[in-house]
Structure formats: structure tokens, C-alpha cells
Amino acid sequence: MQIYTRTGDQGETSLIYGERIGKNHLRVEAYGTCDEANAVIGVALSTIDQGISWSLSERKTFLYWMKKVQTLLFHVGSELSTPKGKDVPWQITQKHIDQMEDAIDNWEKQIPSLTQFILPNGHQTSAMLHQARTIVRRAERQVVSLKDEINPLVLVFLNRLSDLLFVSARYVNAFSAFEEESFQVE
Q: Considering its fold, how many domains does the chain have in total?
């Protein structure tokens, strides 16, 4: 398969089912932002074996979830690139959201309770997960303007995903040599 098609050389791209839209269309911005978050998660995972002291089981569970998130971000892209009224190839479902909530609840039991704001830093993996979280928040803001045209669970999914990335960043720090730093008013 040839990677370049030349069909986007004039600033347009195709949605699923062939509809052409500008590359600056909000749909393209939103799924591009999800792709950006996905790439940052991938970079975060490339640093996961550096200075984190967790069991093989904890590591496997964490990697399972991060890879599941990456796959589900492709589902979000499918939702966002399908015109209203057409069948979506891969959909976000309530089951996906429920599973993420279970993961969040499980990880939160294993980290200290929050009593104040924390700085988004720490272990390299954690810092990148915080970055991915902020990118997902941007995607969420973009999707708000599309909510009448797409599956409403996409917005819920992105909101919950930012929570999952926040908790996962804290989870990584809990197993590393980095201590969370509280926000200090100066």
C-alpha cells in the first residue's frame, strides 16, 4: 500500500464514507488531537521500565490498560471521522467507560488520597501521562462543539480518560522514587 495519495495536497481530507472536508474542520482537529494524545501515551510507555519498582503483575495490568486506551482512542477517531447518520465502524460504548472507571477505582485504592492540587511532574512516564491528559482535555473541549453530531458517549469517554490518565500518572509516581509535589501559593 502506498502511503501517500496526494488527495490531501489542497488542504482537504476524507471522512469515513468518502465525504471531503477541510483539514481545519473541527472533526479533523478533534480526532487529530486524540491522535496526538495517543502518540504521547506511546512515548510515555517507552520509558516505563526505567526506575519504577512494581511487580510483574502490576506492570502487566498497567500496560494492558494503556494499550487498551490507545486502541480506544482509535475508536474515538472512528466516531469523529464518521458523518452524522452513518454507521460507525468502531464505537465507544458504556462498557468501555465502566471498565475505565473500574481501573481508576482500583488504582486510586493504591495511591495516597489527594488533599490538595499537585504539580504535573515526577517520573518521566508520569510527566508524559500528565501531558497526554492535557491533550485529551483539549480534545474534549473540541468535541463539545460536535456533541449534537456524534455519539454522546465520546464526550463522556474523553472526560473519563483524562481522569484515568491523571490517576495513572499518580500511580506511576507511587512506584517510582519521585514524590508528588503539592501546589504552593507564593
A: 1
Residue 18 included in any domain? yes
Which amino acid would we find at residue 67?
Answer: K
Residue 107 domain-assigned? yes
Q: Tens digits of per-residue pLDDT, 146-165?
A: 989 999 999 999 999 999 99
Whole-angstrom Cα distance, residue 145 to residue 138?
Answer: 12
Residue among 136, 124, 114 nearest 172 (CA): 124
Domain-embedded: residue 134: yes
Q: How many helices (H) and strands (E) does the chain have?
A: 5, 2
Q: Is residue 181 included in any domain, yes or no?
A: no
pLDDT number for residue 183? 78
Q: Is the whole-model pTM more than 0.90? A: yes
CA distance 134 to 137: 5
Q: Which of 85, 170, 80 is nearest to 119 (CA)?
A: 170
Tell me how far CA of residue 61 lies from CA of 10, 103, 110, 123, in angstroms. Answer: 44, 9, 13, 19
**Residue 88 has what DSSP assignment?**
P
Cβ neighbors of 128 (< 8 A, separation 6 or more) are 40, 41, 43, 44, 47
